[in-house]
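Bench notes, afternoon.
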Amino acid sequence: MEISLNNKIIVISGGTKGVGRQLALQCAADGAHVVISGRDETSAASIIEAAKELSGTIEFKKTDLHNINSIRELFTHVANKYHKLDGFVNYAGITPAATLTECPESLFDDVFDIDIKAAFFCCQESVKLMQKSGGGSIVLVGSTHHTRGNKDRTAYACAKGALFTLSNHIGRHYAEDKIRCNYLVMGWTPTDGELALRKSQGMTEAELRTEAAKAIPMGRMTETTDIVPAMMYLLSDISSMVTATEFKVNGGELI
């Protein structure tokens, strides 16, 4: 069986950069109509340009994930234009570093506002729309930090742990509506955010990759090309009986 997203309506939060960007392009290449959210209009314009020759489409809806009304406007736009939602991927997230004893309230609030509060209300709107249109698939992008995390990622680990609970909650309680929800554990990946953080700590990408290779049993970092196919699978009808899972794409990495 081939994975097909032809004519499916997919929303991706944080779809203007990194894995979100590549997922949007792959979904559109497979015939899906993709709505990406975010605040970076320049990056969004380049994605839309790159998708012009693809069989599907990509459009951008500027969204402030700190603002619940802005989130609701995103899904209202989807409902009014497409009258259904087949898939939602919560890729948006931030990963600032701070230990439990160092974490200021402002950093804690920033992490929880984006990594769990925004995800919660995106899922709320997704579920309501999917209930009306016959079901769908939700993919919440998680992390190997979600059970306890590295010492310098306390707030992030707690937020990703809450996201894991949300995923299981939706997967169990909305299966009767043909709504699936899975928690995709994304391993140590050289995302834009990770590279920026390491650069601020005085580490080059080459040094990061060398350090990661020692820590990951598979001997290398997780790449976008590892993650996107897994997301495509979870969004497709091939995975119609897959829900409430911890779907790991992490090369055996444990934290």
